[in-house]
Amino acid sequence: MTMELPEARTILDNADCLHDEAEVLAALDAMGQEMTAKLADSNPIVYTVLNGGLIVSGHLLPRLRFPLEMSYMHATRYRHETSGGELDWKVKPREDMKGRTVVIVDDILDEGHTLAAIIDYCQKQGAAHVYVAVLIDKKHDRKADGVQADFVGMEVEDRFLFGCGMDYQGYWRNTLAIYAVKGL
Ligand SMILES: O=P(O)(O)OC[C@H]1O[C@H](OP(=O)(O)OP(=O)(O)O)[C@H](O)[C@@H]1O
Ligand SMILES: Nc1nc2[nH]cnc2c(=O)[nH]1
């Protein structure tokens, strides 16, 4: 459901800014360097997980200083809620990833069910290696079994976040800074 403009603005005005633009860009710089050092000779397919991964990918991909192919997939389980439900695959990857190195880029690893399903899918398609890069790893002990990211920009406290690709009821994906909703 669409939010009224004053309400959308109030959400941002009242939110706690946890990481400002400069901190996010510094984290992306470090991720880019780490990924370039590790993956430069791997000729990967780098997948953006829509919608949330869009802003992170837009900043991260230019920081990957090596040859790669890029594509996207869309899997979602939060919709406009603040807790996750069943995973809905809206767009599955279409490339032949057999024998390839695959890199999954997303905004956040929270409970990990989204990434668990994506990793499983890529492995079943025959990917030789699946790496995961997320800007945010949320700190709590509710992670899905065995799911972890290979490249993490920052660890963030266990609150409901928005900004840098993450939405609050469909809004505010379009900030670079990362916020927590007041009271959540
Ligand atoms: O680790 P998890 O608890 O599974 O949550 C992480 C996922 O949740 C968000 O996507 P969302 O379901 O909101 O879809 P969207 O990106 O299309 O909004 C985010 O972009 C991750 O893909
Ligand atoms: N917007 C948003 N999406 C999420 N998906 C998983 N965790 C979060 C979160 O904290 N905020």
TrEMBL record:
The keyword Repeat does not apply. This is Hypoxanthine-guanine phosphoribosyltransferase. Gene3D superfamilies: 3.40.50.2020. Its EC number is 2.4.2.8. InterPro entries: HGPRT, PRTase-like, PRTase_dom. One of its GO terms (cellular component) is cytosol. It catalyses: IMP + diphosphate = hypoxanthine + 5-phospho-alpha-D-ribose 1-diphosphate; GMP + diphosphate = guanine + 5-phospho-alpha-D-ribose 1-diphosphate. Residues 18-168 form the Phosphoribosyltransferase domain.
